[in-house]
Amino acid sequence: MAYFLTAVRKHNPANMKAIITIIALCVTANCFAQQKTITEKDLAPVNRTVSLGMDGAAQVIHLDAKDDDGVAWIKGTQFTEGTIEVDIKGKDVLQHSFVGIAFHGADNKTFEVIYFRPFNFRASDDVRKSHAVQYVALPGYDWEKLRTEHPGQYEKPVEPAPEPNEWFHARIEIQSNIVKVFVNGNATPSLTVQELVHTNGKMIGYWVGNTSDGNWKNIKISPANH
């Protein structure tokens, strides 16, 4: 079953309210479509404020910038294995744009993340460029520990490099403890790693790093069929 998270903006005489529409589409012949609408209250932010906007016909989820990491969990959605696709936009500001997706969340401090550093996408320095996409498993395996103990294994460049101030498309595949990250439809993964933890967590959400804000749209969560 694939969950498509899109959104529309509705108008009423007194107020303009942004809503997110989740449409569950079954792939089997005898399944039917279900539709549920949620508001900002159906996202559970931690150390961030969520705001909803529009980019053409697409709803944009925005998290503001604060000190320390932040996440907005998608309430009522569980994920263990399968594929996550989403459009993400950060910015080309050194050390102030860490944007990605948190998954396998057991609580607000225990989860895994795939995130991007857009300010490194097209860096002229090869070392910085090699730090474009990152896997971490918090709290035990942050980027610093992984970079020190396993240099070049849990972070890689993104080729071809996206424009750091524009939207890019990420496809995250998680299957049999292997995580693969594909960017902008590239058939070759930018990053392939083996998961470092097994929390049995099922929460999934939008994630930003220290002092970072970020934007997401067109998320599609497709759990694996077992």
Describe the structure.
The protein is mostly beta strands and 226 residues long. It has one domain: Jelly Rolls (Sandwich). Helices cover 5% and strands 48% of the residues. It contains 2 helices and 17 strands. It has helices at 126-129, 143-149; strands spanning 2-11, 16-25, 34-38, 43-46, 50-55, 58-63, 70-74, 82-89, 99-105, 111-116, 133-138, 155-156, 168-175, 178-183, 191-194, 203-208, 214-223. Strands 1, 2, 3, 5, 6, 8, 13, 14, 15 and 17 form a 10-stranded antiparallel β-sheet that branches. β9 and β10 (111-116) form a beta hairpin. It is globular, with a radius of gyration of 17 Å.
Which terms summarize this structure?
single chain; 226 residues; mainly beta; Jelly Rolls; seven-stranded antiparallel sheet; 2 helices; 5% helix; 48% strand; disordered N terminus
Q: What's the CATH architecture name?
A: Sandwich
Number of strands: 17
Q: What is the global morphology?
A: globular
What oligomeric state do the depicted chains represent?
A: single chain
Residues in β-strands, percent = over 45%
